[in-house]
Amino acid sequence: MSEALDLSPMDTPESPASGYSTSPSRSPKRDGLIYEPSEDGSKTSSCLRLLVSNAAAGSVIGKGGATVSDFQTQSGARIQLSRNHEFFPGTTDRIILVTGSINEILTAANLILQKLLSEAEDNNDVDEKTSQVRLVLPNSVCGGIIGKGGATIKSFVEHSQASIKLSSQDQILPGVSDRLVTITGTLEQQLRAIFLIVSKLAEDPNYAQYANAPLSYTGGSVAGIQGIPGGYTPVGYGLPNYGSSVYGVNARNNKGLMAPLVAMRSPLPIGVPLVASGALTSVKMAVPDDRVGVIVGRAGRTILDIQQVSGAKIKISDRGDFISGTNDRQVTISGPIDAVQHARHMLEQRLSSDLER
């Protein structure tokens, strides 16, 4: 079974690689560039794919595309977004593709992440010091990012001082050949990590072809589920391997994480089996009362997105209406079995992502 890599920085910072400011006390700028262009970075072409929530994508695009056009002008990179409701499988996130030289990519990433962080802070949706960004990488190049015995990714963590988590191969959904890299840290730490990852990927001659891959996951059809990219079949997919071993020093983001997720692997209370009635199914999950807001989202946006993407109906018990003997609310997912499984996976992913922050 493939294991996920979850690495956090040591207490003693290391000097980042060339091309970046090395001052650990330097705070992220909001009105300038954190990334400092290097001579080599202007000659090497590459690409970067990252995820952004459907709600936040609008702030990157701007009115009439003004913001993304400005970012392209400032950076020199080409910036593309997947269409509205063309999400990365298993998420409600759209894909941003940035292509150009390494310098151009890092400048564009800086502008995009500063914009997203500013929007999140305005909505009180992010910690004052750290946030997360998720990159999309082909599984075929992940070995180079990990390195022998995990040496390369450990070096990236030490140099960037960011926490870097690479999803397990067991989490790859059918029809998808990509894995997610979650980078947690300050804006400057995230950009250092992205610089190291993109520079490493640029050494792989096959990675350049990834810039031409479509942003939508097409190739087949999924009957009855609106918004799921073709070629992605949610029936029978494996749920994230939350029980994977955790590697690294000071795995701070996993404090208090494993116990709740063990329970989350089997969210059905005793005596509440998966019940099928014809082509329809229902499943019940137990979610702690203080975590319900995570799956509902601001003004109900998150749960509405999940319902729209999965095609399932989701109902949460009223406030104060707990499962007997617990402080858990009951979440009922109903609809076609594939839609229900997909919605359940998305809910669990949302809960686990929130715990990792």
TrEMBL record:
Which superkingdom heads the taxonomic lineage of this protein's source? Eukaryota
The record's InterPro entries line, in alphabetical order, gives: KH_dom, KH_dom_type_1, KH_dom_type_1_sf
- Indicate the segments forming the K Homology domain, all copies: 44-117, 129-202, 279-352
Keywords, comma-separated and alphabetical: Repeat, RNA-binding
Q: Return the annotated region ranges for Disordered.
A: 1-43
One Gene Ontology MF term: RNA binding
What is the name of the protein in this document?
K Homology domain-containing protein
What is the protein's species of origin? Picea sitchensis (Sitka spruce)
